[in-house]
Amino acid sequence: MSEVREPAGGRGAQLKHTGLRPGWTTGACATAATTAAYTALLTGDFPDPVGITLPKGHTPAFALAKEELSAGAATAGVVKDAGDDPDVTHGAVVRATVRALPPASGVVFRAGPGVGTVTRPGLPLEVGEPAVNPVPRQLIREHVALVAQRYGGSGDVEVTLSVDNGEEIARSTWNPRLGILGGLSILGTTGIVVPYSCSAWIDSIRRGVDVARAAGRTHVAGCTGSTSERTVVAEYGLPEDALLDMGDFAGAVLKYVRRHPVERLTVCGGFAKLSKLAAGHLDLHSQRSQVDKGFLAALARRGGANPSLVKGVTEANTGLAALQLCAAAGVPLGDLVAEAARDEALAVLRGAPVRVDVLCIDRAGTVVGRSAVR
Predict the structure, then answer these.
(1) Is 204 within 8 Å of 12 (Cβ atoms)?
(2) Both ends of the chain: CA-CA distance in Å?
(3) Cα–Cα distance measured from residue 293 to residue 283, given in angstroms and rounded to the nearest whole number
(4) Measured at the alpha carbon of residue 226, what is the angle toward residues 222 and 227, in degrees to the nearest 5?
(5) pTM above the 0.70 mark?
(6) Using one digit for the tens of pLDDT, what is the confidence trace for 136-158?
(7) What is the pLDDT of residues 263-283, one digit of tens each?
(8) Is 343 helix (H, G, I), strand (E, B) or coil?
(9) 109 closest CA partner among 142, 127, 79, 131
(10) Segments in the chain forming alpha helices (H)
């Protein structure tokens, strides 16, 4: 990773405090493999190592584990390094095969062996599409364009992504339950895997609160990730040292702020994650809590949903699908979840002098639910 100057306090310092080695997402690996393969398709040579630029400016270089060049296609593969995170895809070989397409075709994605296909609604991809999430798709498109500009290509290519043993690895994930069949998803929003250690992460949350209080901040925000962080900054203009990267540990933020109060706490995160907080879960990790569709249906009923809509929410594939059903019917499920999550947070705070509000967002960072401040 290239050197990036981190701020003295706030989220950057909080993450650094964990002392754990970060790694690279499947999306970053797929981008590197695609960049190498397309370069070879245009020039006949594979760059090794191959460098890419991630959304926050990091510029990692990846050694190639696989190279194959034919008259009409090029394939490159890299081994995923998840750092110190216990990621099931650590060590997996992520491959990209690139073929030229006719002019004006753009970048077309295909699922190769070990990459899943979306079979149910409610995900940020259409049914039938390869399970390559929106941010990795955009990152790959940007790097295809850069390679095309540098070596005189059109940028019109088919990118087939595959993961060795991906179908087997996917059985250890939630993909089958979500209707992603045939393999893994290509994921990532920053390109970087932040290592997951309960004790180190919770300790870093506490240090983040301490830094904010020492800096005189009266309004802090607990964010589930980088997208929610950007949303909070856009909504409230909070400085870096007022941002707490709480990840899945909502309870750790609330319990520490209860003992070390600030005037106002905003909790911001994905709708599905915060629906878990609304239902009373303080650990939002997918292995320890699940979206309760029955709970969402009860909220929808309270918000005016008719019996047919209540049934649809109960049977929805994902929390996002339930939200979309309610939005189409004019039922403010996002606001109802935000209010319930705020009330749960206030219950954990046990009367501490902290005012709380909650923002629920979608994957793009758009606010889909908000509570009043109480």
Answers:
(1) no
(2) 42
(3) 18
(4) 95
(5) no
(6) 999 999 999 999 999 999 999 99
(7) 999 999 999 999 999 999 998
(8) helix
(9) 131
(10) 10-17, 26-43, 134-151, 166-170, 175-178, 198-214, 226-236, 250-259, 271-278, 293-302, 307-314, 319-329, 333-349
